Amino acid sequence: MIISAQLIDLFERNIYPAELEIDAGKIVEVRKVAHVPEGAGYLLPGFVDAHVHIESSMLPPTEFARLAVVHGTIATVSDPHEIANVLGVEGVEYMLHNARNTPFQFCFGAPSCVPATCFETAGAILDAAAVDGLLAREDIGYLSEVMNFPGVLNADPDMLTKIAAAQRLGKPVDGHAPGLRGADAERYFAAGIQTDHECFSYEEGLGKARLGVKILIREGSAAKNFEALWPLLLEFPNQIMFCSDDKHPDDLIHGHINQLVVRALEKGCPLFDVLRAACLHPVEHYRIGTGLLRPGDRADFIRISDLETFQVLETWLAGECVARQGKSLLPHQAVDTPNQFLASHRQPEDFEWQTQSSAGAIRVIGVDDGEIVTRSIEGIAPIREGRLCADPASDLLKMQW
Question: Which end of the chain is more exposed for a tag (fewer CB within 10 A), N or C?
Fold first, then answer.
């Protein structure tokens, strides 16, 4: 099979007319030619989401892939800690098993913090021995985000043992340290943690980038940090990747990493720095088996219309076209979904908050749109018949657990 187009070479930082010769799912040869047919578009390695929880899409990996390939995404770095919080190792194994049914590349990690904190009631616990067992598997690529940064700073033995296990096996260690700066950030990343996707201000990202940390610019359904962090791509182009973290299906229908590519280019970021962040850096850092348009590589790539809109015309995986003109060509697959739903029966009175107070002063979790970092504020709740009540008119809502 021969495919012709303008080829975007991320290694030579060059664009030239070329022919790809493909056989048995691999690129046999890349030939520079004098010209290609008009309207052939551009070929480049596909986009990679450098950190995402597939579970947040409310889809199994195979169905996530069906949506993502339409937008030129060919691989994800996926932390399965959400399903592990419910099902433990069984949940991780489910994700691995389902992902084998698609040519889409999923790089799954070993969840480092299940439960996420000692204050949670989770469906499972992954201790150091369980994490070590997962890391030893060939189909586990890295240690997932180390959310327990207080444990790292206080030298918690279980947490440090998990990090040491990943280092012993030569596997990357992902970070998660929102707001951590200064000496504490230095100590946290000195423990062997290499990335962070939780920066929500330019100053925070700048401090971590100066430590050599790889910064993942996040724009997902919940947290939206692109506007704050995009200037880091100008200053630290070799340390930047793009990620969504959480991508709900109604958002994934409209776009994925391709949207961040277009926005970064509109900001004036250099083309090759943007594309290396979107296509190359995650593949190199996590050693994903995705092709990068070189002879001998797996034939994974995308064809786009132009260098402004980046409209994805085709997505190819292992030498097969899996999306064309906005339509996914990957088949629907029936799945058996594991579950563990544990809940006790509740009565309406279980959700009542009795009070003897006349003022109704309460502590409230403050939430900002586009951020997942919260703050503590004071509020005044209405009191009716000795019960604290919600006040939707002032955006004061009641949570119960």
Answer: C
